[in-house]
Amino acid sequence: MAIINLGSSADSEMVIGSLDEKPACCTAAQPGMCFAPIVSSPDGYRDCRVVSKANEVVAECREVFQASSYAWMPSYRSFGVSHQGLRIASMKSERTVIVSASTLRCRWARGLLLSPFFLIVAGFAVLDGRHASANRTVSSECPSSDYPHTTSTPTAPSEKRVAIIYSEADAEMFSDTMLYSQLFMAVQHQSMMAGIPFDLLQAEALTDVTNIVNYDALVFPCFTHVRKALLAQIESTLQQAVYGYGMGIVTAGEFMTRDENGVVLPGDPHQRMKQLLGLQQIDSVPRHPIRQLQILLQKIRGATYRGMMGVLRKIAAPRHPAWEWLGFLLHCVRGRTEAVTVTAGNIRHPVMEGCEPREILFEFKPFIRSSSFDHVPNQPVAVLARQTIYDETHAAILATETGSRNVHFANWRLMGCSNLVWQALQWVVYGDETAVGLNLGRNRSIFISRCDMDESQYPHGVTRTEPALYDLLTEWKRAYNFVGSYYINIGNHPGNNMYTDWEVSRPLYRKYITLGNEIGTHSYTHPFFVTRLTPEELEFEFLESKRLIEKELDTTVFGAAIPGNRENLAVANTVSRYLGYLSGNHSGMGPGYPGAFGYLTPDCQMVYLAPNLDSDFMMVGYRGWVPSRAEVHWLQQYSNLTSHASQPLIHWPWHDYGPTDSNAYTVEMYSFLLEMAYNDGAEFTTAADVYERIKTSRCARLEVGRCGTEVITATVTVPEGMTSLGKFSLKVYAGTRHVI
Question: Which of 4, 45, 432, 703 is the most exposed place for a label (fewest CB within 10 A)?
Fold first, then answer.
């Protein structure tokens, strides 16, 4: 996989080809392209020297190539990419297309993707954070003069975009609305991995087809419940979208089968699933005694369940987080609650590319609600994965083609916890065409380090831990190019020795910032139960601490990290008024979703980042694990998060006292994780940086055009003020394989 980098030097261009020999007609004086093959090394890396226009050596990849008038992009090898038999070709530097500092022209010319010849031509403009030009654009052309082997007529570029639907009726049926928001954000994260920009819509937008006609697909994280008053309009709109506009659907579980009160809709409740997706829910014969009890429990639901959950949310949940687990268990008894094992099915389908035959994709333990679905008669279907519940096996992921391409997951957790939705989106949007993705970065993953500086509000704690931590960060910066985000408390009780001595802390934190790190707020006084605070108290904890940190450090505070126990949606919405982003509490397998990155609701302007690795305190301080066991656990979690993923976000929470002031922890356990991520090709960055990238991703316009089967063009446009486009990359896929 080579990556075309947006933000490379304006003096750089590259052409990658797979030619076995230099064409006889090509000479150094010939205008346009000429090829200079270089033999690849046995391990597949290209051997070349990178030379600037001024004939200065920029980088060397085993000294082979000499050039005086060509400029090469010195990034190919730095990503650890290998392709056997790949050759490098050069382009005359005067062919560089530079329109302005805010415009980039990219073209990919090719023969058939499966043929021996594959040519990519890319011109680069400066698009990094140093330029704040308005309306940054990556534009494209397809002139036949540039590609003499191309005779096809160009097709008009079309924007690639999906809509992710937020259903308040479904959110209210979850034991905690925050869990639904996490599912909602997990799907946003998958869209980012697919490289497809997205909009967030309320379900009410589906009452008018004109609101959705410009989307390639509709994504429903959960759309079981529909407000009865809107049912007919939404059903009509979706019929037009699927059969009139070929708009695909990606969803999970029952689809439009109940009203907002949980009551089964009259008539055939699965009628809409059958018409739009070509699927229906099936009943299986129970073969286990526990299943008999579950059937009985299923009959005690509807209004009773809604009433119980309403009381739980309004009275019990705010008082103690343990009630959230009870709510999750009560939620489970509404459907099947056995452990579920999901294995790969049709691995030849593009959505499942990269999976092994009968590979175990997920094991949900101990509880999960899951249903079984199958295709309607005469409806072609691909069984992408299967689920086994005790001794019963049914389809878990199905792909159908009705008036559009559709992918259906058997349950929400499978959809929210898997790294298969991004591939489903690419198949639904692009079909058999070569996909182009606009990705958040250029590395294999993006690693966000969150350090809660719990010692920061104790003067004696600062002198004991923070200087030692700075020395450690300096070492990690040198070894892994490590940077991260550090969240400090102020302290508001000088009599109890809980305050910040800015004469000591100020120069220290500024040194952190100099290393490339970010300082955020961890609240003013570190309350352990933020759900018990009034809006005024929340404003003091987060807004006032933000203002004071900005004043003392002369820096901008973009976000906060929640202290203590987990927050709820009401807390998050309150602090969103004065924060750009919020790093919340852990969201992982179980009653959560490990990819909760994005926006809590369509109306929320704050970016939410949920840690998806366990914290050092949770493993060592709370569970009492030894560091070696914590290392193994981090390794397993990291492997799960990156398996079948395309540049996932990894969010790691830890504490300042861990590697500096505790015998229970070791420096080696932290270095182990960082070295593992570094060797895996992760990019270390700050939460503020990811916040800017997610905003850009949501607002970006990606237009893709084609000249027959030989040339792909792409245009990326972002609104004024978006300065992070230069950190993105464009990826080209054949099926789901990364080609560029």
Answer: 432
Say whether 486 sits in a helix, a strand or coil: strand
Q: Are residues 376 and 416 in the same domain?
A: yes
**Residue 104, Ramachandran bin (φ over 0: left; ψ between -120 and 50: alpha; else beta):** beta
CATH number at 284 reads 3.40.50.880
Distance CA 477, CA 471 (A): 10
449: Cβ contacts below 8 Å, ≥ 6 apart: 482, 483, 484, 485, 652, 654, 684
DSSP code of 516? T
What predicted TM-score, i.e. pTM, was given to this entire model? 0.78
Long-range CB contact pairs, 66-73, < 8 A, 24+: 67/36, 69/28, 69/93, 70/13, 71/9, 71/11, 71/12, 71/13, 71/96, 72/12, 72/13, 72/14, 72/48, 73/5, 73/8, 73/9, 73/12, 73/13, 73/14, 73/122, 73/124
Residues 665, 717, single domain; the answer is: no
Q: Which residues contact 507 (CB under 8 A, 6 or more apart)?
A: none
- Residue 547 has phi, psi (to 5 degrees) of -65, -40
- Please say whether the beta carbons of 95 and 12 come within 8 A: no
Domain annotation covers residue 157? no
- List the beta bridge partners of residue 737: 734
| Contact present, 483 and 685 (Cβ < 8 Å) | yes
665-710 pLDDT tens trace: 999 999 999 999 999 999 999 999 999 999 999 999 999 988 766 6
Listed in sequence order, the residues at least 6 apart from 491 whose beta carbon sits closer than 8 Å to its beta carbon are 456, 457, 458, 498, 499, 500, 524, 525
- Residue 689's CB is within 10 A of a number of other CB atoms, namely 23
Q: Which two tokens stand for residue 230?
A: 């809107």
* The last residue of a domain, from among 384, 409, 439: 439
Element spanning 251, H or E: strand 248-252
**Per-residue model confidence as pLDDT tens digits over 82-118:** 222 222 222 222 222 222 223 333 444 332 222 222 2
φ, ψ for residue 713 (rounded to 5)? -120, 150
- Which range marks the domain in which residue 591 is found? 445-694
Could you say which of 439, 465, 483 is where a domain stops?
Answer: 439
**Whether 473 and 403 share a structural domain:** no
